[in-house]
User: Which sequence fits this backbone?
């Protein structure tokens, strides 16, 4: 039982990272503030523990 739970957690973590990666790419291409705000709202739903500053810092570091 423990292995399947762990496997599910790992899969969710990897999927979350991929979604954030895609959202960072969309944020970088976004031109209007409305688009950027909409993407940041989605980020907060996908990964509530990631703050706006953390999301943007990872974007600047890349």
Assistant:
């Amino acid at each position: 039982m423990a292995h399947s739970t762990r496997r599910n957690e790992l899969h969710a973590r990897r999927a979350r990272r991929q979604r954030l990666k895609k959202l960072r790419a969309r944020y970088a291409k976004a031109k209007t503030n409305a688009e950027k705000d909409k993407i940041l709202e989605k980020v907060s739903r996908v990964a509530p523990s990631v703050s706006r500053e953390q999301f943007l810092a990872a974007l600047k570091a890349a």
